[in-house]
Amino acid sequence: MFGFGQDIGIDLGTATVIAYVKGKGIVLREPSVVAVDNTTGEVLAVGQEARKMLGRTPGNIVATRPLKDGVISNYTVTEKMLKNFIHKICGRSMFSPRIMICIPSQVTEVEKKAVIDAATQAGARKVFLIEEPIAAAIGAGIDISKPCGNMIVDIGGGTTDIAVISLGGSVVSTSLKVAGDKFDEAIVKYIKRKHNVIIGERTAEDLKINIGCVYPKIQDSDMEIRGRDLSTGLPKTIHIYSSEMLEALIEPAMMIVDAVHSVLEKTPPELAADISDKGIYMTGGGSLVDGLDRLLQEKTGIHVMIAQDTVSCVALGTGKALENLDTLEGSRKI
Fold this sequence. Notes:
The chain is an alpha+beta fold. Helix content is 37%, strand content 28%. The strands form five sheets. Strands 3-2-1-9-10-19 form a six-stranded mixed beta sheet, with helices on both faces. It has a five-stranded mixed beta sheet with strand order 13-12-11-17-18, with helices on both faces. Strands 5-4-6 form a three-stranded antiparallel beta sheet.
C-alpha cells in the first residue's frame, strides 16, 4: 500500500513508457500501445498485451500508439493508458501520486498542457514537467549543477533530443523527429524497394535490434524474415544482411549526426572545450543501434560514450529529479 506523497517519475515515450518510483527503482516498462474497441470505445489491452495485437486485429479493434514524435497525438487514449499504468503502479492506494513526466525539449505550450491535463485526469495529484535531455543527463549520473558543459544525445522512439547542459539547464538544445521509429520506417521502405516485399513495423524493429547497423561491420550477419511479396500477394521468406541494414539506416543516422553538428556550432566556446574534453553522452534505446556511437565519433572528432542502462536513463533521471524538486530549475510546477 502506498502512502501519501507517493512520487512517480514517468518517461512517457513514443515507443515505451517507463516508470520510476522513489525507493523502488524502475517498476514499470511497457510499450506505449493501446488496443481500443472502435464500436464501444472500451480499452481492451494496454502495453505488452496490446503490442502483440499490432497489425493483427479485426476491423472493430484498433491497436494504436497514442504518442507520435514524442507528443500526444490521441489525448483520450493517452489518458486511459496513463490511468491504467498509474493503477498498476499504485494498486488500490487511497492517495493520488505526484508525477513528473519528461517531454522533448522543443514542445509547444499546447503540447505541454496536453501532457499535464492527461496526467491529472489519469489521477495525478500534482504534475511536474522536465525536459528529456536534462532527465537523461541526471539518469546517466552526470552532475548537471556544475558550471561546465555536458552534451547529451537522447535518441528515443519518436524524437532525438540534443542538448548542451550547464548549471542545471540547457544552454543550446534541439529536438528532431528522427529516432527509433524513423529507423523502422527506413527499413520497411528499403525492403519494399529492394526486395519488393512488405513487412510490418514489428519485423522492422526486430531487424533493427538484431542486425541493424550504421557503421560497416567486420563480419556481415544475416536474419531470415517473412513478409508479403508485392508481385504475387503471397507470404515470402527472405534473408536480410547487415550490410543492407547499413544502406537502409545511414540516411536517418546522418540526420542525427548533422543535428549534433549544428548544436556544437551554436555552443559557446568555453562549453565546447568542456565537451571536447569530456565527450558526448548518448542515451535512449535508439543509441543502441550498432555503430551509431562510432559514426558520431568519426564525424565530430569527439569521444562518444553510451550511458549505462541507456534505455532507462530518462526514467531514472525523472525519478531522481522528483526527489530533488527544490534544487532543480527547468522543472515547472503546476
